[in-house]
Amino acid sequence: MKKNILFFLLAALSCLPGKLFSQTYQLAGNPVNTTGWDLVSDAAVSGDFIRLTTDQTSRYGAIKLSTPITLSYCDKWKVEFDFRIDGNGTTQFGRGDGFTFWYLANPPTGFVSGGGLGIPSNASGLMVGFDIFNNTTEGQMSKVHLLYGTNNTAGNNIEYNNTPGSSFHSPDLYSTQPFVGDTYKHVEVNGETDLSNPTNWIIKIRIDGVLIVDQSFAPSGNAVGMTQGYFGFSAATGGASARHSIKNAKVFVDKVPILNNTITPFVCTNPTTGNGTVDLTSYNSQFVNNPGNYLFTYYILGVATPIANPSSFQYSGNTTIKVVIKDPTSTLCDNGDGIIQLNPTPFAASDASLIGCNNNNAGTATFDLNTAAVTTLAGTTKEFYPTLYDLNAGTNQITNPNAYASGPATIYVRVTTSQGCVSTSKITLNIHPVVTVNDRELRSCFIESNPSTASFDLTSAAVTPTPVGITKKYYPSLTDAVNNTNEITNAANYIAPNGVVYVKVFNSNGCYAIAKVKLTVLAPVLSKVLQNQTICMTGKTTLDAGPGFSSYLWSTGATTQIIKNIGVGTYWVKLKTGECVTTQTVNIYPSEHPVVSNIDISGGTVTVYVNGGTSPYQYSMDNVHWQDSNVFSNVVRGEAKVFVKDSYNCEPIEINITVPNLINVITPNDDGINDIIDYSALAVKQNLEVNIYDRYGVQIFRADKANGYRWNGTANGRRVPTGNYWYSVAWNENNKKITPVKFSGWIVVKNRE
């Protein structure tokens, strides 16, 4: 048989790079899936196996593929299956007869007598028989027969076919490999091209891993040159009886997957010579993915010798090229076939047109001249010229056809095919209408947390009069817009200060123009009349935000321009100007109370010293009559009050004071009259101090709690000389704030000694 057999894709190899899943022909499953197979006569599905015959005499069964398989250029193949032969047999002939795996050009379609193991007479192809009945001795045996040829011997029994180089008969394996039994036996049949004689197959058969045959077989009879047939199994019982069963049948193939079986490229011939040249290898990618993974051989149909130089194949008329594709990494049948049909026809380039964008009104469009549909042929070369004269003269060829800037014009092109055929045509360049845009301004209210910025909805800028069918993109600068860099992605909420952005407007043709949008931040508008105030703590005032605003909303809930009877605190008002609202805060501070820092009393004169608050101050000792002077004269001795208020005329502060009795003369002669100065009545005052000084300012006596705040005109236990002395009495009045009081005067001491 010519090295031609089609197999099922080996699943383990189907995942290799560059391969696709192929058909898988097999008999497996429970129940067995027989889709794509035909059951003949007695054959039937029985659970997970195919029963070819029942255990009866004169029974026949077969299973074959429904469609023939075309075999071509197969280097290696493999078949696996399990078989079982069991049953009761007959008294005269025992169990019989056996079964065959085959690839036949004329498979059985009905009953076949048992002697040929179910193989029709004169069947041609590859037959591997598993024989359990010796037709000579009519006894049991276990033999393997192989025929690579035509079943045309007596009785159509391959047991008797001994065609030299095409047949094989094993020894009787009855004692070591009995075919009859309750268990399945596993068979592997491997075939590969005999490299020393490529028309032969080297066939290897193993039963349960034991090698039965390993030799080269030559096709004979009608198997020579056979290219199409059917895979299948058959069995017959003849005069004996047995049940013949098979399961887990697989025929493996790793055939190169072909994308296109036939391609018909455009080719032409040189009018002068009548010949053309084509690179057949340039079409490899149309047959398979990743052509670098495969080996390609090219034949002229009907010629057995490969084309020697396929990359420069010369032809003249219609020529059919057969392409054989081989995967060098494959271990099984791996050849794919393709056809390249060369039908030379005259070549003519077509006139074409291109239309481009006059982007941003630049005056020209940029054209890729190579995209002009002047030809659908692959592998052509094109030369472009600005005028027909330049094309004919070969001058001023356009050197940048992929990015040719031009206004409306006509360009001329010379197209040369890979076979050297030449044609010229023209390309008309047109320009789309200019995209119309207008510069615009967007004004937006300031953001309170950052008043120099605002949130702009850039999408609301009406930069184009025809918004239907346009697309807009936004950029922070003109350079960014031209180069498509730094696109603004938050165009509906773009935070920015005063400035500009650029809008790139595309129409449905992909053309664009750029518009400028000025961004203006509407600054806060504050009331010029609303000012902070200072009032008395318990006082009330009026707040006026001033006119000119469209609405007012105070923190008090009022919506008027003016609010009245407002006490100390912090307030805000929302002032609306146009669509913007400015929040302005105003404070009403409590006035600072004045503080009496100290009081001097000299005789009947009281001097009040004040700080804090806001001058000028006013003073009173009865909270009725007020004076601007801080000095009170002729104050009566005893307890008194001093009132002070500042310019805010708030509730005055009140200070309690004591004006001591004024003693100017003492006569310390122990007569009980004016013998001492006695300020013990002030002992209840805080920090009371009484000091006596001589006329030089030297302290000569200090009255304290120990001496009862009394002085009897002595110093260091001795009477002081008669003369004038000064005294100073200081204490703190216990008011809301401790007020220092100082009382001073002079005294005459008259001693008789």
From TrEMBL:
It is found in: Membrane. This is L-type lectin-like domain-containing protein. Gene3D superfamilies: 2.60.120.200. Residues 33-251 form the L-type lectin-like domain. Its main location: membrane. It comes from Chryseobacterium joostei. Keywords: Membrane, Signal, Transmembrane, Transmembrane helix. Residues 1-22 form the signal peptide. It is a single-pass type I membrane protein.
